[in-house]
Task: inverse folding
């Protein structure tokens, strides 16, 4: 489920999920100009979460670049 918050001059979106072991994880991003942009990012992350494409690990630079 996504959570939206007005922060300073922008918006922040935060999502939470549980992994297979029952451990809770969270991912957030801020600096959106509008709430609609924050909602679009959260929706994209929710879809990625449902398809198991979301992770809390940092990407390896060689794979990212």
Result:
């Amino acid at each position: 489920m996504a959570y939206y918050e007005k922060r300073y001059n922008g918006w922040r979106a935060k999502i939470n999920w549980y992994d297979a072991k029952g451990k809770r994880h969270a991912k957030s991003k801020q600096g959106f100009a509008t709430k609609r942009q924050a909602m679009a990012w959260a929706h994209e992350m929710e879809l990625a979460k449902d398809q198991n494409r979301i992770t809390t690990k940092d990407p390896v630079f060689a794979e990212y670049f």
About this structure: The chain has two helices and three strands. The mean pLDDT is 85. Residues 21 and 64 are 27 Å apart (CA to CA).
